[in-house]
Amino acid sequence: MIAGIGIAVVLIAVIGGYLLEHGNLAVLIQPAEMLIIFGAATGALLISSPSKVVKAVFKSVAHIFKGRTFDKKDYTEALLLLNGIFYKIRQQGLVSIESDVDNPGESSLFSQYPSILKNKHAVDLIADTLRTVMTTTIAPHELDALIDHELDIHYEEMMQPAKSVNFVADALPGLGIVAAVLGVVLTMGKISEPPEVLGKCIGAALVGTFLGVLMCYGFVGPMGKNMEHSAGENILYLTVLKVALLAFIGGSAPKVAVEFGRRVIPAGDRPTFAEIEEALRQHKG
After folding, report:
1. What is the pTM of this model?
2. Does the pLDDT at position 284 exceed 80?
3. Which of 85, 107, 200, 268 suits a disulfide with 100, CB 3.0-4.6 Å?
């Protein structure tokens, strides 16, 4: 939603300012220039990115317009899930959650939180960490390093679409110049024409530069930055899970481990201690 508003603001500001100076809007509609710029940009994306990255780019662009980010409710549900898992382990032993981590989709613990089940990386992090603890004698500091490596790889994965989009954004002004140069080449072939004809041709050529720069700084570049923020938010969310899991595995009581997780939630989305207490009471009730 907010991305759509941003696009509307850019268009209104640019086109509105142009029309205020009595510009002719029809001059900006140059199909040949658009074909050159957008076609070349699409080709550059396909050349520079493997097929899985191209698919991830389209998926990430769709995610931008969904406007879904992690909020206080998401973090609260994550802490409630971890609290349930920790108490079950404390009361019934580590083996009691074997069926939960082997098949989270059918787990009575995980199924209470559909939004978390949809987050494959979050479910995998919880399940794989607990499965590792159940089946090995890994030391806490080794587990910490293992999860850090996993999060680093996940971050690099999530940054690939952003890097590809930023590459295209950086290329757009140059592609706009390519379209403008081709327009000038065509204009030079009409050098014997009257000035009004030449002026129209030069104006059409300059639209290429305009479109390239506008698309770079007004649309594609900001989309790449949005993808970067999204990758960072995902890592912050997974870090909350990591900290709480490590605290519990290290010997902390369930409530203390949950507090460890709460403390690393970004301030703007962090539920208060009292809010978590109330949520735990309501859930228990």
Report:
1. 0.87
2. no
3. 107
